Amino acid sequence: FKFQFLGAIEVFTKEAIQLYFEKSGDCAGKVGHQGGEDYYMEACMDGIGIDHQTDFQLLNDKYAATENCNDPWVVAFHFYKAVSMWNDCWTAASNAAKFANKA
After folding, report:
1. 71: which of 27, 42, 65, 97 is 20 to 30 A away, CA to CA?
2. How many angstroms separate the CA atoms of 87 and 61, rounded?
3. Is the pTM of this model over 0.85?
4. Are 59 and 76 in contact (CB under 8 A)?
5. Radius of gyration of the chain from Cα atoms?
6. Are the beta carbons of 94 and 70 closer than 8 angstroms?
């Protein structure tokens, strides 16, 4: 995903969100909103000392050339304009996960 943290999905630990709620006031006046919510969250989390990691396998994103519907590790699919295309991808991923769990 060429945007790394900035994109269709961000996953936070419970501890990261707890710290964010404790210190989010520190971000309100210091972090701009010009980049959208993902930019704001990355800048705020970095500012309050929460590091981030990248896992390119969590998201199946047809615009980032990762259309691998047979990957059981994928947790989200972005974005399919036709419901049938999304359903087909979800079904393939679900079947792959069932197969992986049997192995």
Report:
1. 42
2. 14
3. no
4. yes
5. 17
6. no
Residues across the chain:
103
Give residue-wise pLDDT tens across range 78-91: 777 788 888 888 88
The helix (run of H) or strand (run of E) holding residue 93 is helix 83-102
Tokens 């704001």 — which residue?
A: 40
Cβ partners under 8 Å of residue 95, min gap 6: 70
Question: Looking up tokens 């969590």, which residue turns up?
Answer: 58
Q: Could you write out the three-class secondary structure of 13-24?
A: CHHHHHHHHHHH
CB burial readout 38-48, b (16+ within 10 A) else e: bbbbbbbbeee
HSE (side-chain half, CA atoms, 13 Å) at 50: 21
Six token digits for residue 34:
């010009």
23-42: per-residue pLDDT in tens? 988 887 777 667 777 788 88
Reduce the DSSP state of residue 38 to 3 states and report it.
helix
